[in-house]
Known about the structure:
Layout (H helix, E strand, L loop, with lengths): L5 H16 L5 H14 L6 H20 L3 H38 L17 H16 L9 H9 L12 H9 L6 H34 L6 H32 L17 H7 L2 H15 L6 H19 L3 H20 L12 H24 L5 H11 L11 H19 L10 H18 L12
Helix pairs in contact: 1-2, 2-6, 3-4, 3-5, 3-6, 4-5, 6-7, 8-9, 8-17, 9-14, 9-16, 11-12, 12-13, 13-14
Amino acid sequence: MLFNSVTFVVFLPIVLLLIASAPRRYRNGIILIASYVFYGAWDWRFLGLIITSTVIDYVSAVVIDESDDPRVCRWALRASLIGNLGILGTFKYFNFFVDSAVGLIESFGWHASRPALNLILPVGISFYTLQTMSYTIDVYLGRMKATRRFLEFAVYVAYFPQLVAGPIERARDLLPQIMSPGKVTGERINIGLMLMMIGYTKKVLIADSIAPITAEIYDDPSAYSAGVLLQACYLYTLQIFCDFSGYSDIARGVSELLGVRLGENFRQPYLSQSVNEFWRRWHMSLGSWLRDYVYVPLGGNRFGSVRTYVNIMATWLLCGLWHGAAWTYVAWGGLNGLYICIERALGIGRGDPPPAHTPRQWAVRIARTVLTFHLIVTTFIVFPAPSFGNIIEFVQGLLVFDHLSQVGPLPFLAALAIFAIDIPQNASGDHTVFLRLPWWVQSPVYAGLCMLMMLYGDREIPFIYFQF
Length: 468
């Protein structure tokens, strides 16, 4: 079920009405059923996977919590990791690794058969797999106690607002709210509706308007001039931000209506002054997950510069592979890792940048922001490309430098709309800063945006991150 669908517009009020009218003890049961309906709307057969993952991690965590034998605890943790990674590996990576192995064998002139599984990638499997694994790992490391309340844990795993594209929530943050949700006050309703409006504006009015253009250009880059390709670079960079951050805003808004506060997942990333800072502001829940469960266990920066750079690259290559079962995604992760290693060697991007006061400081800040944005643009050339051949065609077309005047106004209009949202949010540190506007300003803006969405929101284009 898509957030930007008529089905969801009907589904959400029904869920909220059932929760409001039913006794409180039935609340989590209603949310769990709603979450399974929401997820099963794509394919009900995939519910078996999410239920299996729930049972594995619930039992593993309880065994770890109750056992005094380190060997039993280790085997319970292994059961959780093998179970979750086995499901993820089978559905997402089996054909990728088989094809890569066969290709390597055939490069030596040998023949190899190519077994394959005709499996559809379950929506959101990468997200809820990381979420459930982090719970078991945290119990094993003593960061939290295992819950004995299976219903609440099942809600934590399948919680529909953030189930298929995050934020990736830690159990120690989300589970207590599920067990004891906050009261849905008028203030929370206003916050929720505001976040949803911002999210739908980003997704329906900006990202979905750009999507058909970039899809056509990336499908056959050799057919377009450098000016058109350059426009596609900018447009896709803006599209993926509005698409993904729009999902996160809607997820947070819907969750506020349920009395649960989800973590911030985006913090105006295109205002960053370094690639390192960008990745502290973009998909923040994945970045913190990779830091805590991959980079730090590998050794982090504790064993010298060379080991630190190796750990950074290993983490980013894994991040690329998490995004998709293709070498293009691995290359995307490697390029980001390379940028961060270079910045670290130059002493750039550590900590938050100092505030600007003088004209010179503002000029430096703007220059660094523009440079960072264009470095990110280069990584997103790789991201949507179906193959390395496609990437090569795209880059070759850009390097011709012909017809650069064909860059139209759409990238600038999209960027203007984004910065009209991001700059006030960044300056105030508040995603709901627009609630400070008087009602007579908010009301016509709400009405105008709703009118535009009704006119242009019938496309129901899936969110980009659903494929991961």
